[in-house]
Known about the structure:
By secondary structure, the protein is of the alpha+beta class. The chain has helices at 19-30, 47-51, 73-84, 94-123, 131-151, 164-179, 181-185, 190-200, 203-206, 215-219, and strands spanning 10-13, 35-38, 61-63, 69-71. Strands 2-1-3-4 form a four-stranded mixed β-sheet, with helices on one face. It is globular and about 50 Å long. It starts with 9 loop residues before the first strand and ends with a helix.
Amino acid sequence: MPEDEVETKLALYGRHASPFVRRVAVTLRLYGIDYDHVPLMPFGPDKAELAAFNPIARVPALRLADGEMLVDSAVILDHLDQVAGARSLTPAKGAARRRVLTLVAIALGANEKLVAGLYERHFRPREAWHRPWLDACDKQVRDGFGWLDRQFVGPWFTGAEMTQADITVAVFWLFGRGKRPTFFGGLGCSRLQALAEKLQDTPAFQATLPEKETLASELG
C-alpha cells in the first residue's frame, strides 16, 4: 500500500437502539467484519450529517472501505452476504433462500407496523390518536409475530442452521418487548421469546445492546 494511502475500515452509522441498525451490527460481528460504529441519530443535530449521504436521513448506513455509502438494512445485508460467501446467513438460491427471505419479510412488515404505532403514540397528543389506525397496526403486529412463532421449527427457524431469519426476528422481538412489554407479553409467542433469550446471551448480541435513547433515535 502506498505511504499516502490509508486503509479505511467500514463504518456503521446509527444507534443500536434502532432494530434496523442492530440487525446489521449483529451480522457484521457474526461475519467477523471489523467496523467503526458512528452512533448518529436521524433526528436533531445529526440529521444534516446523515442527509449528506442519505436524502431521507435514515439509519442504518454503511460506509465501505472505498468510501461508497450503502443505505437501508436490506441493501447492507445483501452486500454483507456477498462478502461472507459460503458463510452467508441467507442461502444463496432456491427454496431455502425464498424461505428465509419470506420469514424476514414478515418480520420487517410486523416491525414496521409496530414502529408506525409508536410514532402515533409518541408524536401525537393522546386526544388526537386515531384509534382505528392503532388497532389495525396492532393487529398486523400480532398476526405477524404470531405467524412467525408458529413457523419456528427449532433449534432455528429453518432447522439445524441459524439464518438471517433468526437474527432479524430476535432483534425485532427484543425491540418490541422493550417498547411495549405488556402487549408483547400477551402475544403468547413462547418460541420467539426463547429464541430471543438464547441469542441475547451471545457475544454478538451483547456487544450491540441498545443505548438508552429517546424514541426518535430508536425509530430511525
